[in-house]
Amino acid sequence: MPLLRLAYVTQFMIAVIAVFVLWSQVGGQTHLDLMPWYVKAGLGGGVAFAATRATKLSVEGKSAWNGGSVKWVGIMLALMVGCGLASYYFHMYGEEDEDQGDETVTSQLLDRPAGLTPQVAE
User: Fold this and answer.
1) Which of 18, 19, 27, 67 has the fewest Cβ atoms within 10 Å of its own Cβ atom?
2) How far is 20 from 32, CA to CA, in rounded Å?
3) Shortest CA distance to 4 belongs to which of 48, 55, 68?
């Protein structure tokens, strides 16, 4: 059994990586960056734990799809929907950087060629 426990720990660690890579690709990295750490840790860790638990119950049962494994796959899917809803929430209501669009008059004048600068009447 210790070897099987090591396999489950390894699967959990790989699942954590896979969850966050999938979440950043599907939901968008900018929305993921706006979320507090505890939302990401709770949902991402929950999905990885549910995947590992479903695998454990699938291995221990008589058949691969037994009641316990189906229950944990359902929990995993529900948590993944929660990840999507969290990404959507932060897409709609998250703070965005508004400083990127600010240009001063000085920077606009510096971008023009020398012949197109406005003449100031004295």
Assistant:
1) 67
2) 9
3) 55
User: How many Å apart are CA 80 and CA 15, to the nearest integer?
Assistant: 13
CA dihedral 38, 41, 47, 51 (to 10 degrees): -140
**Helix 67-93 and helix 37-60, axial crossing angle in degrees, nearest 10:** 160
Digit-coded pLDDT (tens) for 51-109 = 999 999 999 989 889 999 999 999 999 999 999 999 999 999 987 655 555 555 555 55
Structure tokens at 49: 């734990």
What are the CB-based long-range contacts (under 8 Å, 24+) for 1-5? 4/59
Q: How far is residue 16 from each of residues 36, 102, 117, measured CA to CA in Å?
A: 17, 39, 56
